[in-house]
Recover the amino acids of this structure.
């Protein structure tokens, strides 16, 4: 149980740790020299002190066995995003070994190099550079060793499939495995360049995902599948609401039913060797709580947030709003709302802890194994070196598994029980303890000139956070302020439960507001929505994804509402450009929205694993249907009313339209994030298309049938 | 009440002495060590725990063990034969019809029940039959493509 439920998720650091930081850290290892493209990203020499840092010895990332097989070690967990596949691929390319000869070790803090966590679409755009640099250095060292062994200058050597040979005399050769001979390579080289992107040959192949065979066979091991001798399953007494205090608990009946009861302060658990018996025993515990009362719910939350938010701070200002409004023929205001949203991975938070000789090993479904190791050490007053965290396959995270309270509970209980203990949240606990995407209010006040140009853009964000709130359009006079954001300013009492990073934190809400408002202004200006956007865009990459999506979609130029139900929205996140077009119809009687087709064009720089990029585009677009149309956490004060998927509706097969994804590469531009950008446009693009279909504008997500009906009634 | 319940599990006889009111999911996972079948919601809302009982897809999290007495139970572990994936699993691999893989056993098993009854099933019908299986990673289109393709292979005699 968390004492203070209003806590920021650890994933916040995703916003703060820039690419520059990571490159600086990598640069401090003295072995990294980036290829020409990456050099353009300006490696800065600043050091970040008093923080765990990335390993600098390449042996931490790659090891070569005597048979030549390569094992990769990384701090990134496999959430389904394909980290073990793309990192294996890049190691194989840098080392010149076969893809099939590379295996990644799942994160185990005892053997894997430190990383801050798996979030922020950082795996390829930042982390892989460290791994590639390690592999590149290893290859260079191996070439030097081969040159000495074969008596041939390095320049004359070539590598193919892990075998180094003399170009002049191909029979003169030696394999990596033979060279290393099972030993750690002690030799190091400074400034070994990674290969330029075009030389990463595996990028051009469709590779079998490393996890495919295990996952379709049911053999992929998740945390809850790990079983140890003597292991007990724990179920924990939970409060009815966040902020509730335990008054009394009677566990007699649970004990009579054969369960073991452990009590440690407010932590009361029933344990049994069978999970369902523990579950039954939990239902027999009579616990009373003092529950704070509040009338704030998902409807009144917006007034509450406005009232409670701290004063706004400036995010960015340029030009003069007053001047811009003077030039305007009309000033258009709009307020846009988004609800609290749950991560709802199908695998609930799971952990297993086992003590041996004063040391603890914790298996956990977590996105942050290294920070978790630190937390467990802190909570249990242990040394970090006595805590080991292992992360098997994780059944989805989306930001929600950056917080890992279940693992701390398992560790506490295992120590008290003297035997291994598993803690797996049930679905109600998963909703209750989720660090949800915050509800958001975005207020826009904009000036539109007589010739249809935006002369001022004044934006005030409340509660949702500022990531990607500065428009990428060319607005001469603009100002963005943020109050009570995720990035460092929730006031006490604002939220009744934990908030955190939900796939593209802040950006879904901010994009919904910006793009919806662009549509509103296009209508006022009497201009086609695509044309109106192009009019305010000079960024060639954004123009290109928009034009690509519109063309593939078959955009029908004209003023909205056209009645045909087409929509458009642009988005930017983690360095990647995204444009989405959608076609839908609205049942005017029920308010139900049926999406027929979506076209997504995305520019992530280069795409190092194109099928992986497509999976992210399709998956994020599909996931986005949920926050756009149905997902809204219902609550009253600290009571969470959604307990399962019957009321919290996530996208289903019957919702999913035809989805066409186009990767628009910008060659020579470093690979950027792919997991988040395509989700950010979905709320806005469906709002745009609903307006085009019906003339009804929705200013609030999710666009439930009821809200659609209300909007239709206003037309 | 403890009783001995016998059934056929993945083609082999199985017998468990336990309380017959316990849900099949937990007996499979904790008593029999078959962890391919997943817990996702506990209320038949997500499909991660799907198994096949006498040819019908059921949610094992709400199926008491006593209900499968004398019946044939097929779990994800029973789909392979002789170390080879079946046609549906092959199609999931080919299409990369998964990301995190947690819902995948339930998806595969539910789809297998559909195709085993009628490999000629049309996409609309597949969508209807799969609608109770949730995937949070958003692999729906690839899953449907894989099921359709496996249906064609099964019409041609693949198992």
């Amino acid at each position: 149980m968390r004492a203070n439920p209003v806590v920021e998720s650890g994933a916040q650091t995703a916003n703060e740790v820039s690419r520059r930081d990571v490159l600086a850290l990598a640069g401090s290892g003295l072995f990294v020299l980036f290829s020409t493209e990456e050099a353009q990203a300006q490696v800065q020499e600043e050091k970040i002190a008093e923080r765990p840092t990335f390993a600098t010895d390449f042996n931490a990332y790659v090891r070569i066995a005597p048979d030549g097989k390569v094992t990769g070690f990384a701090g990134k967990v496999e959430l389904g995003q394909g980290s073990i596949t793309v990192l294996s691929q890049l190691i194989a390319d840098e080392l010149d070994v076969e893809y099939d000869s590379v295996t990644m070790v799942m994160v185990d803090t005892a053997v894997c190099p430190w990383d801050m966590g798996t979030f922020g679409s950082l795996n390829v755009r930042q982390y892989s550079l460290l791994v590639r640099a390690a592999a590149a250095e290893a290859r260079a060292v191996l070439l030097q060793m081969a040159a000495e062994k074969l008596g041939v200058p390095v320049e004359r050597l070539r590598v193919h499939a892990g075998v180094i040979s003399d170009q002049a005399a191909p029979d003169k050769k030696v394999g990596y495995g033979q060279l290393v001979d099972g030993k750690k390579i002690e030799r190091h080289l400074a400034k070994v360049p990674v290969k330029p992107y075009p030389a990463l040959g595996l990028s051009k192949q469709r590779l079998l995902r490393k996890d495919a065979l295990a996952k379709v066979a049911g053999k992929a091991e998740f945390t809850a599948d790990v079983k140890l001798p003597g292991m007990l399953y724990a179920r924990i007494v939970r409060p009815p609401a966040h902020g509730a205090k335990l008054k009394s608990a009677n566990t007699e009946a649970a004990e009579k039913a054969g369960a073991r009861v452990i009590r440690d302060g407010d932590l009361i658990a029933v344990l049994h060797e069978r999970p369902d018996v523990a579950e039954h025993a939990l239902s027999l515990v009579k616990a009373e709580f003092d529950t704070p009362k509040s009338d704030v719910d998902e409807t009144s939350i917006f007034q509450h947030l406005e009232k409670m938010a701290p004063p706004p701070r400036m995010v960015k200002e340029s030009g003069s709003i007053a001047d811009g409004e003077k030039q305007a023929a009309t000033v258009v205001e709009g307020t846009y709302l988004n609800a609290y949203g749950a991560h709802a991975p199908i695998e609930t938070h799971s952990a297993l802890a086992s003590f041996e000789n004063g040391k603890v090993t914790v298996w956990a479904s977590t996105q942050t194994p290294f920070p978790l190791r630190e937390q467990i050490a802190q909570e249990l007053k242990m040394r970090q070196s006595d805590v080991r965290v292992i992360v098997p396959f994780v059944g989805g995270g989306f930001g929600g598994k950056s917080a890992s309270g279940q693992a701390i509970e398992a560790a506490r209980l295992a120590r008290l029980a003297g035997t291994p203990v598993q803690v797996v949240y049930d679905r109600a606990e998963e909703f209750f303890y989720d660090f949800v995407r915050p509800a958001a209010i975005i207020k826009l006040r904009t000036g539109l000139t007589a010739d249809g140009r935006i002369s001022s853009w004044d934006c005030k964000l409340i509660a949702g956070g500022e990531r990607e709130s500065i428009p990428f359009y060319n607005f001469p006079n603009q100002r963005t302020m943020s109050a009570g954001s995720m990035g460092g300013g929730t006031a006490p009492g604002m939220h009744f439960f934990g908030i955190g990073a939900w796939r593209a934190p802040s950006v879904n809400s901010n994009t919904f507001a910006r793009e919806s408002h662009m549509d509103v202004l296009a209508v006022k200006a009497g201009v086609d929505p695509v044309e109106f956007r192009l009019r305010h865009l000079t960024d060639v990459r954004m123009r290109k994804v928009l034009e690509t999506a519109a063309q593939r979609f078959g955009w029908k130029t004209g003023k909205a509402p056209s009645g045909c139900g087409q929509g458009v929205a642009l988005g930017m996140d983690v360095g990647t450009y995204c444009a989405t077009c959608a076609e839908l119809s609205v049942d005017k009687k029920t308010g139900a929205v049926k999406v027929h087709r979506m076209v997504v064009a995305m520019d992530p720089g280069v795409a190092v694993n194109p099928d992986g990029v497509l999976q992210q585009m399709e998956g994020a677009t599909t996931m986005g249907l949920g926050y756009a149309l149905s997902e809204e956490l219902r609550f009253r004060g600290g009571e969470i009313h959604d307990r399962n998927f019957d009321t919290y509706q996530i996208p289903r097969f019957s919702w999913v339209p035809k989805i066409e994804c186009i990767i628009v590469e910008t060659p020579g531009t470093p690979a950027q994030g792919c997991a988040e950008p395509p989700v950010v446009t979905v709320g806005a693009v469906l709002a745009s298309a609903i307006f085009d279909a019906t003339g009804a504008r929705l200013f609030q997500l999710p666009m439930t049938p009821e809200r659609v009906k209300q909007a239709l009634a206003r037309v | 009440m403890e009783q001995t319940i016998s059934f056929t599990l993945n083609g082999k006889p199985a017998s468990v002495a336990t309380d017959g009111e316990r849900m099949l999911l937990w007996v499979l996972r904790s008593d029999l060590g078959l962890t391919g079948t997943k817990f996702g919601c506990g209320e038949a809302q997500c499909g991660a725990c799907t198994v096949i009982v006498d040819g019908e897809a059921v949610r094992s999290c709400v199926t008491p063990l006593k209900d499968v007495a004398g019946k044939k139970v097929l779990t994800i572990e029973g789909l392979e034969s002789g170390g080879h994936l079946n046609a549906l699993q092959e199609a999931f691999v080919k299409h990369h019809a998964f990301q995190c893989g947690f819902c995948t056993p339930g998806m595969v098993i539910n789809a297998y029940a559909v195709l085993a009854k009628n490999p000629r099933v049309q996409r609309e019908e597949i969508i209807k039959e799969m609608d109770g299986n949730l995937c949070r990673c958003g692999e729906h289109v690839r899953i449907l493509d894989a099921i359709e393709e496996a249906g064609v292979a099964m019409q041609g005699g693949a198992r």
